[in-house]
Amino acid sequence: MQLTDSEQAILDGESGEGAQKAMELVVALGKIYNADGLVDITSAHLSGASYKTIGDGGLKYLEDMVKGGAKVSVRSTLNPIGMDRERWAEMHISEEFAKKQNRIVDLYGQMGIQTTCSCTPYTGANLPKLGDHVAWAESSALSFVNSMVGARTNREGGPGALAAAILGKTANYGLHKDENRRPTVVIEADIGDSLFEHSLLGQAVGMRIGGGIPYYRGIRPGIEEGKTMAAAMAAAGAVAMFHVEGVTPEASRYDVSDLEVIHIGKEELKEAYEKVNTADDVQLIALGCPHLTEREVHEIAMMLKGKKKRGDAEIWFCTSRAVREKCADDVRILEEFGPVLADTCMVVAPIEGTFSRTGTNSCKAGNYLPTLCSQRTMCQDIAQLLKVIS
Ligand code: F3S
């Protein structure tokens, strides 16, 4: 792996301990994956922000990085944390958890990271351009920018993305290179237009192919459909990039005539549905995985307008701070039913202390709620879920 003189100097510690540690990590990853060198990045998106997932060990790691003088050198945004920074008490969060969580956010802020705490930074704070090299963690977001935007990132982990953010560089391998962005399989999708069916499609494809780069025909996803598919494919499998014929920027570059073709229709969606449905009733309904967009907040508000909250189940609407502020009128309608939470989500919040059965319209959450939050799940269309509470 070739390093320039200035990169080698960072590795030798000439730019301080924080930068040296970052370079050691990026170089180690590069060696594992046979990178030929480093590539400049235009942005980073960091995961590993919830106290629930990183614990005291992660907090100590961040303290050490800050002590070592680590600072990011490119635009960097942060994934959801374990609570809404203002409304954590409504989420049944303890004071001790809140204190440590706030410390984590503070440390990221001290390193120059925008503490947006959202998994949809591409809708506002951090939207890369076609062909940009970036270092993103958060499997749904990185797949979205690879696929729907045409930026280039590998599936970074939290520490790898932080190291790249500090250096403004990442190791040049995998999806940073043209030859690794080719489709590996064609998916003929025979599904309806609903958002939920796109989530089930992602689930079915992730279950069927595991990894690789699917090339879709038969769908025309917008932002919302693209993000839910990306999330489901990355959770049910390990898909970090997909193409959609006629939609995604790089799809037309490839001849796919020799590839295997897989048909995904009603039967496959049914199998996917059964995998993520393990509960008949719920104590919590949590919408917004990935975080709700303005359009989604508006559509949910229109579904709830004029209705009354009923039953004991709680409902949380998870979105970004920016969307919550922009959609004040719709948010008022949603708030009659449950909190519109920013900064957080149902998977990285410690919901297992309060709930054991959760409803979601996201197959990504349908995969992770059982494993990371000990939940049984009801995974349904939003309209179906809203019938439980209205
Ligand atoms: Fe985002 Fe949490 Fe889902 S980080 S993609 S809402 S699991």
What global shape is seen?
globular
Oligomer class: single chain
Q: Give the CATH class of the largest domain.
A: Alpha Beta
H/E element order: HHEEHEHEHHEEHEHEEHEHEHHEEHEH
CATH architecture of the largest domain: 2-Layer Sandwich
Structural Rg: 21 Å
Q: How would you characterize this protein structure?
A:
The chain has 390 residues and is of the alpha/beta class. The protein has helices at 5-11, 17-32, 51-67, 95-110, 139-149, 158-167, 195-209, 223-236, 266-276, 294-304, 321-326, 328-335, 363-373, 382-389, and strands at residues 38-40, 43-46, 75-78, 134-136, 169-171, 185-189, 214-217, 243-244, 261-264, 284-292, 314-319, 340-342, 357-360, 376-379. It has a five-stranded parallel sheet, sandwiched between helices. Strands 8-7-6-9 form a four-stranded parallel sheet. Helix 3 (51-67) links the parallel strand 2 (43-46) and strand 3 (75-78). The radius of gyration is 21 Å and the shape is globular. The N and C termini lie far apart (59 Å). It binds FE3-S4 cluster (F3S). FE3-S4 cluster binds at residues 79-80, 119, 140, 231, 289-291, 318, 345, 347-348, 364-365, 368.
Q: What's the arrangement of secondary structure elements?
A:
Layout: H1 5-11, H2 17-32, E1 38-40, E2 43-46, H3 51-67, E3 75-78, H4 95-110, E4 134-136, H5 139-149, H6 158-167, E5 169-171, E6 185-189, H7 195-209, E7 214-217, H8 223-236, E8 243-244, E9 261-264, H9 266-276, E10 284-292, H10 294-304, E11 314-319, H11 321-326, H12 328-335, E12 340-342, E13 357-360, H13 363-373, E14 376-379, H14 382-389
Parallel strand pairs: 2-3, 2-4, 6-7, 6-9, 7-8, 10-11, 10-13, 11-12, 13-14
Antiparallel strand pairs: 1-5
Helix pairs in contact: 2-6, 3-4, 5-8, 7-8, 7-9, 8-13, 10-12
